[in-house]
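Collaborator request log, item 7. Partner lab (contact: R.S.) asked for a structural prediction of Calcium-dependent kinase to inform their binding assays.
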Amino acid sequence: MSVWKDIVRKEDGPQLEQDYTLGRVLGKGAFGVVRLALDKKTGQMYACKSISKAKLISPEDVEDVRREVDILNLVSPHHTVAGLKSVYEDRNAVHIVMELCVGGELFERIVSKGTFSEADAARFFRSMVEMVAHLHALGVMHRDIKPENFLLTDETDAANLKACDFGLSDFFKPDQRVSALIGSAYYVAPEVLRRSYGPECDIWSLGVVLYILLSGMPPFWGDDEKAIFTSILRGNLDFATPPWPQISQPAKDLVRTILNFDTKQRATADQILQHPWLREHGVAPDKPLDSVVISRLRNFAGMTKLRKAAILAAAQHLSYEEIHGLKELFKSFDRNGDGRITLDELRAGLTRHNKLADCEIEQILRDIDVDGNGVIDYEEFLASTVNLALLEREEVCMKAFAKLDKDGNGTLTADEVAEAMGCTGRMSEQEVRDVIARYDVNGDGIIDYSEFLKMLRESDPELRKASSTLKRGELALDPVVHK
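Returned to partner:
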C-alpha cells in the first residue's frame, strides 16, 4: 500500500507521462531530480521535481514532502511564487510539477551583469518581502530564506523573482513557538539558534539577504558553522567597511530595522514594504496591501449565490493536499477548536492580517456564512478561501455539477437552482430566474454543463493571476542546518 494514500493522486490514477513529456535535467538534490516537463495539451513548459520514495526512509521524510505539497497548494498562485501545477505519484517517486523559471539565480545575474544599484536591490528585495508577507498572511513560515531559493522568470532585465523551494516551510499558529533547528547557516535567526521562534525568523533572514545584496558579504562571518552561529548571537553589524560608507542612510536604516534581536521590535513584512527606502524607488504602493485571506473572502462575498453554492460543492471534492493548508489556516482562526469561526474569532484572525473596521468584518461574516447560522463552518471557510484555479480540473467540476443536478438529467432546472441556492438563504422566484438568465447562454431556461463550467470558471482576480555563491572571493553562503 502506498504511504502517500490520500496525499497525491492515487497510483492507479493519471500518470505523469500521460500528461507531460519529460526533458533534460535542470538540477539535482538530496531526494531527487528536477527536469523540464512539456504539457502535452498546451505545449507549455514546466519544471518537474521528482522525489524518490527510496530516499524517504523515515515517516518524518514522508511528512516533510507531504507538508511541502500542502503548502504549495495553499500559497499558489502568487506573483512571487513559482506556483504548483499538479502532483503525481507512481511506484518509484512523487512528482511535483511547478512553474518554470529559466532566468537563473539572482546572484548569478548580478555577477554576469556587472552592475547593481540600490534601485535594483530594492526591486528584487521587495519581491522577496512580498513573498514572505503572502506566506505569513496564510499562516506559513518559510524557514529557509536565502538567495538560492529565488529564481528569475526569464533572462530579460524585466524578469520577475520567484520563490522556488518550500521544502523546510511549515505552518504556524499565533504565539506558537517552534524549537526545530532549521535553515541555512549564514541566514538563520538568533532565536532559531536558541530553539524558540516563530515567523519572525523569516524577517531576520530577509535582512541578511538585503545586507548581502548591498555589500556583497554576509553580516555574520565564520570559518565553520559554530563560528557563524557565534557571530550571529553576538549581533555586531558592520557599517564601516566599504562599500557601506557609500550606501544610503535609508538603506542602512532598513537593515537595522530588520536585523533586530528583539523579535517584538523587528519589522514585519508589511512594515518593510512601507519603508521609505523601498517607496522612494517607486516600487511601493501608497495604500497597504490587502492580505490574500481578506482578498479571497471579499472575492467570494461578491459572487452570485448560485456560483457560491457551486464552489461550495466543488471545494468538497478537492484532494487532501489541495485543502490541508486551508484546514490549518481555519484552525488558526478557530481559536477554541469547536469547528466554527465566530465573529470575535474572525475579528481576531483578520486583525492579524490587516486593520478592518468592525462593520467590514461583520459584513464578511454575513457574506461567507452561507447557511445563515451566524458562524463560519469549515466547509464555508474552505469555499471562500480556496484557490479558485484548483476548480478548473474536470473531475472536480463534474462532481460539483452532479451534486446539484438532483435528477441526473444533465441540466440544472429552476427547482434545482432554487434548491442549490437554498443554503444561501431564501430566494424568490424572480431571483432564481435572474440568476439562471445570467448564466443561461442559449436561453432555454435551464443551465447545462457547459454553462455551469463557464459560471464556475468565471473570470475573477484569482484566475487572472494565473546562486549559492556571490562571486566575491568565492564566498560560500549555504551551510545547511538540519532538523
